[in-house]
Amino acid sequence: MTELLITKNNMKKVTLITALLCFSFGIFGQKHITRTGTIQFFSETDIENIEAINNQVSSVIDAENGEIAFSLLMKAFTFEKALMQEHFNEKYVESEKFPKAKFKGKIVNFSSAELSENPKEYTIKGSLTIHGVTREIEEKISLSKTNSNHIIGTSTFIAIPEDYEIKIPSIVRGNISKTIEIKVKMDYEKMD
Amino acid sequence: MKKWIKTICILCISTSTLQAQDDLLDMLEETEEPVTNYTIATFKSTRLVSGHSVETNGEGVLQYLIGHRFGRLNSGWRDLFGIDNATIRMGFEYGLTDNINIGIGRSSFQKTYDGTVKWKFLRQKSGAKNFPFTATIVSNIYADSREWANPDRINYFSSRLNFNHSLLIARKFGDFFSLQLMPTVIHRNLVKTVEDKNTIYAIGIGTSFRLSGSLRLNAEYHYIPPGQIASKIGGEDVQNSFSIGVDLETGGHVFQLHLTNSRGMTERYLVGETTGNWFKGDIHFGFNVSRVFTVKKPKEFK
Predict the structure, then answer these.
(1) Nearest-CA distance B36 → chain A (Å)
(2) What's the domain count of chain B?
(3) Which residues on B lie below 8 Å from A21 (Cβ)?
(4) Tens of pLDDT along B266-295?
(5) To probe the interface with A, which of B15, B28, B101 has the most A CB atoms within 10 Å?
(6) Is there a domain that residue B30 lies in?
(7) Which chain B residue is nearest to residue A99, measuring alpha carbons?
């Protein structure tokens, strides 16, 4: 009976330690966040150039371990031509069905102590989800740190619509490039 | 006992680091402000077939609209089943804002000029804010520029004018089906007889089925409750207007091909000036071509 009591007491301690440990990971993870990141994409063909901008990209970096995540709404992309925006959302990326694009991954060999005002190039690895299709990607990201302790991240890479099962109707296939250049620019603030 | 604690600690650490990766994306999404999702592309064009749909051109977008209605299919081979007797309407519409459009146009049928103001004042939306339908009010004024039928009497300019106000209420159900109701008022300053009402009330219904990404099937019907129109036009009774057609979209163009019993291409002709009888084969083949130009770019592209 006494033994059981002691065990119960110990159990409490264990729970406490566990809770504290779990908590500590939440609190001491140095997270940097933005809600106003910019992602642009470009399609260039002989017939026309198409460009779209999304200024409402959310992203977070865990400076402790280099983990990184992005989330954006497809409908938040603005096009030069309103009709293009409608076609993009309605027919190509099907924003009603797949409202978001997401990325989660890790910056390889990341160390927050290394960051300086001079941008340094890292490899970023992870899974990118567009149009409900998830693919493992590996791209370059350039990171720097400002005086005010912001982390600036930029990246340019190529995505292929076909890889994400985005179907372009034959009638406009000449107008839309097979490879889309994507430019990412993030200005992360330290999270409170 | 110590082993026990150790195991739990290790488990705890490993799960918490494992979780951290998932958590990062989850955390990001959980802390996002809820957004309002506005329904897009209830219809493909600013027109169902001949009448207005709830859609408006975006801010800074100029739409050039050209429509043809040929003669009746039952007019026989000598007129090439109506092809010889085409009427045309050309028009421009411009988006002052995403929801307010103004427009001008001219129909060769009755040599009529028209002016349009269109305001989409409610939008179907879901998410942070919910609303079940889109509502647009459209007002048209028409000026008939033909020579006076009776030049000997005193004719007033106001006799050339006709007016239309329609309330358009539409809902997109899922991805493939849209429905629109359009209570309509037509006011005619000059009518033939005292039995003809100057103001005609009608109710319209329109629909659009998406057949594939770029192809839709549309239909439009206007019902005029009896007792409002007495006079015949060209010896024929006035009919309710029914039109059916397809939308074909190619980049910046929308082509609409249709069959209709209405000769004219504005609300005024649909309600009160339609004399074709579908059952007798008084059917007009017609098409609209719409092309949009971005006159003013969005602020991100200046």
Answers:
(1) 10
(2) 1
(3) 9, 12-13, 16
(4) 999 999 999 999 999 999 999 999 999 999
(5) B28
(6) no
(7) B37
User: The domain that contains B86 carries what CATH number?
Assistant: 2.40.160.40
Say if B31 falls within a structural domain: no
Contact B25 A104 (CB under 8 A): yes
Least Cα distance to B46 among B60, B61, B63 occurs for B63
- Sorted by where each starts, the structural domains of chain A and their CATH numbers stand as 30-190 (2.40.128.110)
Residue B47 domain-assigned (yes or no) = no
- Pick the residue from chain B with its C-alpha nearest to A128: B25
Q: Cβ separation of A21 and B37 shorter than 8 Å?
A: no
Predicted TM-score (pTM) of the model is: 0.83
Q: A59 and B28 in contact by Cβ < 8 A?
A: yes
Residue span of the structural domain in which B119 resides = 62-301
The per-residue pLDDT for range A9-63, each reduced to its tens digit, is 666 665 666 555 545 444 456 899 999 999 999 999 988 899 999 999 999 999 9
Residue B52 lies in a domain: no
**Assembly ipTM:** 0.81
